[in-house]
Amino acid sequence: MKRRSHAFTAVSVVVGLILFVYLVKQVGLGEIYARVRALGGGFILIITLSAIRPAARSWAWLRAMAPHERGVGFSTVWCARLVGDAMGNLTTAGPLIAEPFRLRALNGKLPLAAGVSSLTVETLTYAISSCVMVMAGTLLLLTTFTVSDSLQVVSRVTLGSVLLVIVAAVVVVTKRWFLLSGLGIRVARLLHFNTRLEHKIEYLATLEKYIFDFYARRPADFFIVALCEVSFHLAGIAETYATLYLIESNPTLQAAFILEAINRAINMVFNFIPARLGVDEAGSGLLAQTLGLGAGTGVSLAIVRKVRVFFWSALGLLLFAGLERICARAQS
Q1: 33-47, 161-175, 249-263, 298-312, range with the lowest pLDDT
Q2: Position with higher pLDDT, 297 vs 107
Q3: Which of 84, 275, 281, 315 is most buried as measured by Cβ atoms within 10 A of its Cβ?
Q4: Residue ranges in 176-218 assigned as alpha helix (H)
Q5: What are the residue ranges spanned by the domains of the chain?
Q6: Which run of H or E residues covers position 162?
Q7: How do residues 22-37 score in pLDDT, each as one tens digit?
Q8: Are 129 and 60 in contact (CB under 8 A)?
């Protein structure tokens, strides 16, 4: 299993790297270098704007916790988010490994069940908000710009997919359908009930109940969590606009909105590729060309975004290393 995982990681990185090199050659290394160099000290502004994003989602996670659990503190949750982001961005496992590392980085300051429940609520709210963002950006692209037939097909498939996700999530939550625990019961019957399975099914039912009760009985907290997710997306648009402005492409807020919205879709679909190497450059280059900004602008934007990802990932890894040292000293 580990060999297959390592092989998949190696293949995805190699394919992404080949695509990256190809795009840089197509656009021209000189043009990309000139645009990225034009960023100069403006990169500090990019980092400052991007800092809003993990902070917003950290606050959302904190508010998704029950009031008596928030004593864990914002700084602990913020560190845990950066650690999880680093693991998710730099591996092919994506969210499969990011979320467990977030919980691990809480360092026992919150019961595991409470951490899982609140993190699930925050992640679900973020996913729905991202789907709304993608849908809005795609509609704006289709109604405002002339796009190729192939891009139209991709855009319509994207619209249908995100709409289906939104409707499904809203129906499941409002109807309080216990899908996971219900599926667990069916599987358990096939495998013949045992104590371990029964405990896991009860845990799933408790998790689903927490999610349903959060949206139904905690409107103030839900509003704050939703507002945090909106802030995350607004910060992303501001970061994209600032980057485009600094690399001298004379952008519009409309173009920045579309580029950020489609980037959400790329992140969701290609989360298994470390740092979205190659695919981010390809998607941003094609979209920027459609928006009249030029492929070079899109590829340069993706490269600056990648540098920002590596910056925060490096910080996340440093925080994780520090937490590991603290745990080691506590055990010795």
Answers
A1: 33-47
A2: 297
A3: 281
A4: 179-191, 195-217
A5: 32-331
A6: helix 149-175
A7: 777 777 778 787 888 8
A8: no
